Each structure stands twice: as structure tokens, then as C-alpha cells.
């Protein structure tokens, strides 16, 4: 076949190929007009950066973690870079409680972790929870404030003001629920009289919260906690028409699980308690009756009934304030500064077993024992000058240990200046309530 014949044979094929290419280009152009052009995919940069891009914030996600890669499919940054979260939590729960406020400032995830129940519940289950002593006090001008004592650092620290309704209140109650919630309830406002108000402070969130109001306005009442339920009894409330005062026999109980108050059986007679304690699953109350006579009553939550404490006449007769129950025994102060204790022996039906500190602080108002609480299995006596004495009553030879807070010298100087200025008749600093919170 000659060259001309080959060219003649190949020409139709070449022209057909060109025609096909033209048709494809025309079809492609038509499709481009009908469909929007797709953008090329951006290839991710694999170069490491010390300033990773911050993903868009969305509710419920934390993007301020400690240095993890950002934007990785919406995953949270680790609590501690390079460690799994469970191992990071195991490290954080061992940080002393006094430094927890610093942990909350690190990032949002740490702050949320320390504000929840999981963190402190884990500390409690592993025996890492720390007990601090909180003292609510009133100064010479009637202002209410509160301080906290960290036993590990042996120093009192002033806390932010209490809620406004309790800044000048009198006769209010104080109790602890759940080991970490400090309740202030009732009392008398200088302008509005008896209140039903209830607030509580959470040692875990470090904040004050509102709780449901009590069913009756009352002040000067008794309160206690049994079975993680808060009981209030007696006191005085508003008279008929809201004026004057009247003794109360009514008793209320607050159940935090249901978040509500309800009435239980009334007391046998109206009473204004001045000392009370929970012992042996029952609540013992001693106070003044309607005729200002000393009365004692005991409440059994199982039977929901009140009765006179006739079977414990010896206990009631020798029972003084302050007192506390520890290890199944009831202890009470046997001297003004609380350095000598007595224990009630139920088998013998008498007070015995004195625990004497040997050295006494004196009998002045400043060193008067204002409260007694159980702290880490020991008895802790708190005085008006904010000095603290601790004794292990379970030891073979109990020995007193005095913890001097920084508030002691300040209170001593204030009382001394008041005495020099002729202020002996004025009310001095006094500890109203003392409780232990665990976190």
C-alpha cells in the first residue's frame, strides 16, 4: 500500500477523533453551565505548630484545655497534655484542698471538674477528703461573719460576707447536710422579724445557694441532722397578726432528696433550746419552756414521737453546752474554757471519765468554749478568741493539743481595747456556730 493510500485510509480516523474530542469539550462546557464548579479540597497541613488553630466555640465543649491539638474532630483537649484523663484526674485529686482555688483558674475544664460531684466524691471514696472547720461569729456591733480553719496550715482565714439576710440576723440555726453543705436557716431579721429563709453553702462549688423556705417563721430554735435529714424544732415565731412572739411546738424536717420541708410530730411543750445533741439515734434537746423553766425532751425519728427525758435525768442534769457525740459517747465541757471534758456513761447512768488538759486558758469571755465538734476522730473545742484545742479521747492517755489561729491575737487585742475604753457592758466577739465541712 502506498503512502497516499495510507494517508487516505487514516484521514477519516483522525478526523473522527478530533470530532469526538470537540463533542466532549462541548458536552463538558454544557455540563459546567448546568452544574456549579466544585472547589478544590484544601489539603491539611502536616506541619507542627505551637499555635494550633482554635476551633469554633460551641456550647457544652471546652476548647481551653492544656495544649492539646485543636479542632481534631470536636474532641476535647486533655486535662493534662500527654496523659489520659483518668490518670490526670488521679493526679488532681491528690492536690491539697487549700490549693483547689488555683486549679480552678487553670482552664475551663479544670474549673468544671472541681465544681462537680465526681471530683470530690472520688476524693471521699479514696480517703483523700479534708475536713475544715467553719466558724460563724458576731462582732461587738452585731455584724455576722465567718472564718475557716485549715488544720493542715493551722491558720484561720476570713471568708467573703455571708448572704445579706444573715449579715445582722440573730437566733438563726446552722447545720451540715451531706458532709459538704452548710445551711443557715431561720432567725430574726432586725427589720422584718422572724424569717423562713434557708440558704446553704457548698464546699465543693464554693458558692451560696437558695433552699426551700421553712414552713414556719422561727428564731431561737434547735436543729440537728439525722439520716441526712435536717430537723428544726421549737423556738419563737410571729404572734397572731404578725406582731409579738409566741413559743412554738411545731417540728419540721427537710429532705434534700425531695427538696422540700414537711411537718412531723409536735414537741410535748413549746421550748426554746439552748443545747441539743444527737446521740444513739435520738435527738436530745434542753431549753427553756413557756414559764422560763428548764425542760428536756427527746425525739425518736423511727417512732416520730417526743417524750420527756425521764430515763436520762442524770444526763440532762449534768448536761452543759457545748457538747458533741463521738464514738458512741456523749461529751460535754466541764469548765468555761472547755479544757476539761466529761463523758456520759449510759451503763452507770452518770457523767464520768474526765479528760483534763492540765493547763487552762482561763474563765474570761474571750477564752470561753463556744463550740465542740468532731474533727478527724478527735474532739475539737473552739473558743471565742478563735483558739482551738484538740484532744484524742480514744487514746490511752488523752493529750490536749492547742492550735492557735491568727485570729486569736486580733480578738485578744480588740477585747483588751474594749475593756480599757469602758466597754465591759457591750457584747464582744462571740462564736455562734461551728461546723465541719469535708471536700
TrEMBL record:
Residues 81-119 form the F-box domain. Gene3D superfamilies: Kelch-type beta propeller (2.120.10.80). Keywords: Kelch repeat, Repeat. It comes from the Eukaryota. Residues 50-75 are annotated as: Disordered. Residues 66-75 have a biased composition (Gly residues). InterPro entries: F-box-like_dom_sf, F-box_dom, Kelch-typ_b-propeller, Kelch_1. PANTHER family: OS02G0202900 PROTEIN (PTHR46344:SF24). This is F-box domain-containing protein. It comes from Oryza rufipogon (Brownbeard rice).
Amino acid at each position: 500500500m502506498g503512502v497516499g493510500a495510507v494517508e487516505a485510509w487514516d484521514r477519516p480516523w483522525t478526523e473522527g477523533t478530533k470530532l469526538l474530542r470537540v463533542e466532549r469539550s462541548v458536552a463538558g462546557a454544557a455540563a459546567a453551565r448546568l452544574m456549579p464548579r466544585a472547589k478544590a479540597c484544601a489539603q491539611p497541613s502536616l506541619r507542627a505548630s505551637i499555635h494550633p488553630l482554635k476551633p469554633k466555640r460551641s456550647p457544652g465543649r471546652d476548647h481551653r484545655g492544656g495544649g492539646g491539638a485543636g479542632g481534631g474532630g470536636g474532641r476535647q483537649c486533655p486535662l493534662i497534655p500527654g496523659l489520659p484523663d483518668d490518670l490526670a484526674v488521679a493526679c488532681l485529686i491528690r492536690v491539697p484542698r487549700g490549693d483547689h482555688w488555683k486549679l480552678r483558674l487553670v482552664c475551663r475544664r479544670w474549673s468544671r471538674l472541681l465544681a462537680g460531684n465526681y471530683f470530690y466524691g472520688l476524693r471521699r471514696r479514696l480517703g483523700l477528703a479534708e475536713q475544715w472547720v467553719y466558724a460563724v461569729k458576731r462582732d461587738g456591733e452585731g455584724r455576722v461573719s465567718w472564718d475557716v480553719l485549715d488544720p493542715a496550715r493551722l491558720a484561720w482565714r476570713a471568708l467573703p460576707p455571708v448572704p445579706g439576710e444573715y449579715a445582722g440576723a440573730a437566733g438563726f440555726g446552722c447545720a451540715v447536710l451531706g458532709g459538704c453543705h452548710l445551711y443557715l436557716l431561720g432567725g430574726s431579721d432586725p427589720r422584718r422579724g422572724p424569717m423562713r429563709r434557708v440558704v446553704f453553702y457548698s464546699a465543693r462549688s464554693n458558692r451560696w445557694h437558695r433552699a426551700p423556705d421553712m414552713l414556719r417563721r422561727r428564731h431561737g430554735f434547735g436543729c440537728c441532722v439525722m439520716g441526712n435529714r435536717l430537723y428544726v424544732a421549737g423556738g419563737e415565731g410571729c404572734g397572731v397578726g404578725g406582731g409579738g412572739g409566741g413559743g412554738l411546738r411545731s417540728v419540721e424536717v427537710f429532705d434534700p432528696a425531695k427538696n422540700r420541708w414537711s411537718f412531723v410530730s409536735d414537741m410535748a411543750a413549746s421550748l426554746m433550746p439552748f443545747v441539743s445533741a444527737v446521740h444513739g439515734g435520738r435527738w436530745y434537746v434542753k431549753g427553756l419552756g413557756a414559764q422560763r423553766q428548764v425542760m428536756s425532751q427527746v425525739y425518736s425519728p423511727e417512732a416520730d414521737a417526743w417524750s420527756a427525758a425521764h430515763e436520762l435525768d442524770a444526763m440532762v442534769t449534768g448536761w452543759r453546752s457545748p457538747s458533741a457525740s463521738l464514738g458512741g459517747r456523749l461529751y460535754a465541757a466541764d469548765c468555761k474554757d472547755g479544757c476539761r471534758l466529761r463523758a456520759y456513761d449510759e451503763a452507770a447512768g452518770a457523767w464520768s471519765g474526765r479528760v483534763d488538759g492540765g493547763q487552762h486558758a482561763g474563765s474570761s469571755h474571750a477564752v470561753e468554749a463556744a463550740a465542740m465538734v468532731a474533727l478527724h476522730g478527735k474532739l475539737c473545742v473552739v473558743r471565742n478568741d478563735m483558739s482551738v484545742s484538740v484532744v484524742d479521747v480514744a487514746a490511752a492517755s488523752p493529750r490536749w493539743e492547742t492550735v492557735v489561729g491568727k485570729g486569736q491575737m486580733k480578738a485578744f487585742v480588740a477585747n483588751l481595747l474594749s475593756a480599757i475604753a469602758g466597754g465591759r457592758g457591750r457584747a464582744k466577739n462571740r462564736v455562734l456556730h461551728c461546723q465541719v465541712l469535708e471536700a
